[in-house]
Amino acid sequence: MERLFVVNLEGKFYSCKHCKTHLALCEDIVTKSFYSRNGKAYLFIKVVNVSAGEKEDRMTITGLHSMADIFCVGCGSIVGWKYETVHEENQKYKEGKCVLERIKLSGPDGSNYSVSPETYGGSDADDV
Fold it and tell me: Can you tell me the distance from the alpha carbon of 106 to that of 109, in angstroms, rounded to the nearest whole number?
């Protein structure tokens, strides 16, 4: 059995809403303008305490990308995805970065974000 080492972040950070495992620092956000099937998502330059699934090619609205789902090491929940290879030149800034879905996170203040059908794509306090 492998021994699990978990990184504890200091400062303002996002964590898994299910098990509270630390995932990313607020200062490592590249942009908050991403969306997933579940609503808002944030692109991070660095995340911790995740494991990556199988890499697969996916066609998105911005083109073909090789991506892998990422899972919280604390509880195994899918929390987002990682851009492994980006084929469109104008999208290369995403390569090697991770997207965390906001609905699967607890915010820096410990709050959870939920989206009702009427408010898809709503905002939360940390968007300001």
Answer: 8
